[in-house]
Amino acid sequence: MRRLLITGGAGFIGCNFVRHVLATSDDAVTVLDKLTYAGNRASLRDLPENRVRFVQGDIADAALVDELLPGHDVLVHFAAESHNDNSLADPTPFVHTNLVGTFTLLQAARRHEVRLHHVSTDEVYGDLELDDPARFTETTPYDPSSPYSATKAGSDLLVRAWVRSFGLRATISNCSNNYGPYQHVEKFIPRQITGLLRGVRPKLYGTGANVRDWIHVDDHSAAVTAIIDGGRIGETYLIGADGERSNREVVELILAGFGLPVDGFDLVPDRPGHDLRYAIDSSKLRTELGWRPRFSDFADGLAATIDWYRGHESWWAPQKNATEARYAHLGR
Known about the structure:
Layout (H helix, E strand, L loop, with lengths): L2 E5 L4 H13 L3 E6 L18 E5 L5 H7 L5 E4 L6 H6 L2 H21 L2 E7 L25 H20 L3 E6 L1 E3 L8 H10 L5 E3 L5 E6 H14 L5 E4 L4 E3 H11 L8 E3 L14 H7 L8 H14 L1 H18 L2
Parallel strand pairs: 1-2, 1-4, 2-3, 4-5, 5-6, 6-10, 7-9, 8-12
Antiparallel strand pairs: 9-11
């Protein structure tokens, strides 16, 4: 049995990873989460208290991190400010959490000689042309285009520097767009699903041509576990499930899942710096560690996600009004 300290474990990807760890191992977990608007204590409800300890706090709080980390075998770093629209409105919390917070964790992991895995995003690579057959690989140069992706790129570079300069035992993963249970309704897929559950037509930026490479969050959790267990120290692994879809295609699939006409959406003005296309080549992860996605059919995973939101309104309803008020203020 190992002890894992998981930052951001009350957020979307983090809470799903906590649940994955409990379901697939005998490991015990400490969750450190600041519980900003994107963290939800209810996402960890009903988990066994003898295996999960929850601590509310800031990853940039050096004294707290220094107190918590000893006695843990692995530090898994999910905590991040992650919404592009919010980073354009105010980059300050992104710098604090994604850069200062990661630095604080690196220093603590170095002091206490704890293995670290840093979870990042494919957005650090910028974007690809819509008609470009290329995909991101571990050697693609960084070219972030928003305050969010720039701070995540900076955090990746900090991890690499601590590995090389101080011998920190760390790995990095950059994952494509996640979807699935417990995702905040500000994000693209749950916003459309929960809107339709309230009778609101979906909204698409621009023409809806922008392409994202989608992966079910359970597959992301399994990939992170594989990297922690078998990944080579100092290496970066890209995680993707060959799920490229345009935003228009995603909305059409969601509408079809509700039995509605697939053209029942509205177009709204595009947001600044909207990346055109992301696409992940995960062959290194698959070849070295034998990982494969379970949700290889995006439509099946999306249908399961619609069912989850349909059955968990008590979880997402408290977020919905405030989220839509923010979007209305932005005209989106």
